[in-house]
Amino acid sequence: MEDVAPSTTRRGLLAGIGVGTSALAGCAERLWSQAETSDPEQVSLTIKTVPADDDRLAATIASQLRENYVAAGIDATHEPVSMAELYRDILLEGNYDVFVARHDGFDEYDALRGLLHSQFVSEQGWQNPFQFSDITVDDYLEEQRMAEGDDRLDVLIDLIDHLLETTPYTVVAHPYPLSGLDNELSVPNPPRRPHQYLDILTHPNNESRNGPLEVGVFGEGLTERLNPLTVDQNRIAGLLGLLYDPLVRRIDEEYVPWLAEDVEWTEQGQLRARVTLREGLEWHDGTDLDADDVAFTLDFLEDTSMGSIDSGAPAPRYRGRQTLVDRTNVINSRTISLFFTQTNQSAARRALTIPLLPTHIWADRAEVVTERQTQAIMDDNSEPIGSGLFAFGESTTDAEIQLEPFDAHVLREATDRPSVLENSSRFDGITFQVDPNAGSMVDALVNGEVDVTASELPPESAGEIRKAENTATVTGTSDAFYMIGYSSHHPQLGNPHFRRICSRLIDREHAVTEFFDGLAEPATSANALVGIRDDAWEYDHDFGTASDPLEFPGTDGEINASRVQSLFSAIHYRYEDDILLE
User: Fold this and answer.
1) Model pTM score
2) HSE-CB for 492 with a 13 A CA cutoff
3) How would you label 32-59 residue by residue, b for 16+ Cβ within 10 Å and e otherwise?
4) Residue 420: which residues within 8 A CB-CB, separation 6 or more?
């Protein structure tokens, strides 16, 4: 077939400028360094992740990645750190070269904006932890917020194409959640999100019990900090979502009114949503919940110092969703209008899923404790007051957390309650039993001490659970993925060409077969590489550039050293005695 030159579009031109400029910067910096230094050193990278006891899959990926880096001539170190320390290093301090971590996944395409937009480069949390700045990516992220239908998907295609070129991070696999359960219990899906716990509690096949649902979890520090705004702490999946309710919940890809009785959208002029709260809402301490609490939550997430810090102190969680809201207008105690920035309704509704905070508790936490840190971020919130269907139990200890039914919750008696609550609960609350490691959690299940597990089970534990007489396993799907992230401040990783080669040095299909025991989908499509599951991607498009970052230069998990050396040599790096030099 005759070669045809591609047409030049504005997006194509921007993409070329974006990649070309960043690549030129990386090459120029390296060449300048070589000109100043007569004795170049070996390229050095440290890979941070949690220990195998906390997440065997992340630790195994990091170990394999290190082996392949070393075989490629890189001085690579695998540094296991605790979950809390890892989150501090990557989400608060930016103290890493490369990290391997499990990400909870995206609730909507717009979540990519919080992860990658340069607006968040100096913020904390999962707001651009890579310190990545690319004007083309920013342009696409803004466009996808404003575009509708196929036009939006066209922008997302261009964004993904560009991310495959610049590679601020890469995804290895999308794991299937795996839980163990007592054979007598009906569990539709592994419990990770609030509605999945509710599915178990209200399942008609489960017998009524004069006691709580016993849930097994494992990890360090799970009972120490119950602050919904912090990111530097290990936490129990779904726990805080049971304590803190949003206006609207996302359940199985649908947005279900929760504390909101009604949401009326107006698209003429500035997009806005008029939200009417359910009548009789209360916080767990009996204080009325009203529209002022909604406005306070959105303002507080933007600046937890409430004006005490000139540049503000944004919350490290929910920030991407909060930026969708331009302003609010409280009409009365039950009614508030949310005015949105230039955005489409698909993205804007994400703001309605933010858990609400009680003004009378959190306003007192605006005090500035350290530079750009407020009490709101530092506080353990050891006795959380929310508005969820469950309240924090007084008998909670270091080894367990008890959630008691909040009988005053309006959804317990509402005639128009969501379908997930159509049946009454068969249990009297929820108790989370905390074990130090996965093995202890599995033992507790097999011994009948817990009904179901909620922490991620290592795949090898599935066989032990299935062999036991009274237990079984259940799997499902989730938005989560295992990712490899790169610090753009590292002298070599600042070069997108270098990052792209590094992203090829993990055999994704081999990892799923050998590490995940098949309980995952390898990231073998362009959208999956950036964290969007294939079954969540709505567009049938052939990404022409996808084969390059996907192709693993080796077999069965081990790289072909000569092929990798050729790749690095092609971007003007050089080797000496099989050592990759800066």
Assistant:
1) 0.91
2) 23
3) eeeeeeeebeebbbbbbbbebbbbbbbb
4) 195, 198, 199, 202, 251, 256
Give per-residue pLDDT as tens, 197-224: 999 999 999 999 999 999 999 998 899 8
- In angstroms and rounded to an integer, the radius of gyration of the C-alpha atoms of the chain is 25
Which H or E element spans position 262? strand 260-266
Interatomic CA distance for residues 365 and 75, integer angstroms? 45
Cα–Cα distances in Å, from 251 out to 45, 215, 235, 443? 40, 21, 21, 32
Token pair belonging to 314: 């944004």
DSSP of 371-395? TTEEHHHH---SS----SSEEE-TT
- Starting at the edge strand found earlier in the chain, the sheet holding 400-405 runs 390-392, 400-405, 430-435, 213-218, 452-453, 178-182, 471-475
Q: Which of 274, 273, 271 is nearest to 342 (CA)?
A: 271
Closest C-alpha among 27, 451, 500 to residue 216: 451
Beta bridge partners of 433: 216, 400
Please write the tens of the pLDDT for every residue from 371-427. Answer: 778 999 999 999 999 999 999 997 778 899 999 999 999 999 898 999 999 999 999
